[in-house]
Design brief:
Layout (H helix, E strand, L loop, with lengths): L21 E2 L12 E3 L1 E7 L9 E3 L2 E6 L9 E7 L2 E7 L4 E7 L2 E7 L4 E8 L1 E7 L4 E8 L2 E6 L4 E6 L4 E6 L4 E6 L21 H15 L5
Parallel strand pairs: 1-3, 2-4, 3-5, 4-6, 5-6, 5-7, 6-8, 7-9, 8-10, 9-11, 10-12, 11-13, 12-14, 13-15, 14-16
Length: 222
């Protein structure tokens, strides 16, 4: 397990490269509640507006996942790559993500509360509101993303990094944080950081964030 000079452990991310996949183009009605999809390469997986709780996706590659307004509660996705996620509203509470890479896309509101994310990488994504209340995140990387609002109340974060990611607001109480690394995050436009108490920041960031941190602690700087 990699560690920095401060003792902050880096996320453990394994390469994800599903092999021997069958090309599949799902037609309307092909996917039902609780279905298990395994070993497929899908060009466009359009489930927008569908009711598909407890759907399972294992060792698949999806070029474009369209999931606006879909009911994906209890989603299980493992060993898979999604090249682009398009979901103005993503509803996937109580879902489980294990060894997954989301390589791009845009999500306006992501309802991922009470979810479990393990070995997950988000790359180049635009995330408006990310609701992770009560979720458990282990070995997760946000790389070159934009996160406007992050709610991590009652969540547990272990070995999380925000490489090159711009964060505007992180809120939440009772958040348990271990080895959360913000040193390579873009915090220039941050407005709130209460949810990240216990995270690691750099000395240069501390200088820039001093007025914000003082205000959040209730100090008046004169």
């Amino acid at each position: 397990m990699a560690r920095s000079s401060t003792g902050t452990a880096a996320p453990r991310i394994s390469p994800i490269d599903p092999r021997d996949l069958d090309d599949w183009t799902p037609a309307p009605g092909d996917v039902l509640t609780g279905d298990r999809i395994e070993g497929k390469r899908i060009d466009v997986f359009d489930v927008a507006g569908e009711r598909l709780p407890d759907l399972e996706l294992e060792e698949c590659v999806v070029d474009t996942l369209r999931a606006d307004g879909a009911d994906l509660r209890g989603l299980r996705i493992r060993g898979s790559v999604v090249e682009a996620l398009d979901a103005p509203v993503l509803r996937a509470s109580s879902s489980a993500w294990r060894e997954v890479r989301i390589a791009g896309g845009r999500v306006g509101s992501a309802e991922l509360y009470d979810a479990t994310l393990n070995g997950v990488e988000f790359v180049g994504m635009k995330l408006g509101f990310l609701d992770l209340r009560g979720s458990t995140l282990t070995d997760v990387v946000f790389r070159d993303c934009v996160v406007d609002e992050l709610d991590i109340a009652d969540a547990r974060l272990l070995r999380i990094a925000f490489d090159g990611t711009r964060i505007r607001s992180a809120e939440g109480t009772n958040t348990r944080i271990e080895h959360v690394d913000l040193r390579t995050a873009d915090l220039d436009r941050v407005e709130r950081l209460e949810g990240f108490r216990g995270a690691t920041i750099g000395a240069d960031q501390l200088f820039a964030l001093a007025p914000l941190l003082a205000a959040q602690a209730g100090y008046r700087v004169d």
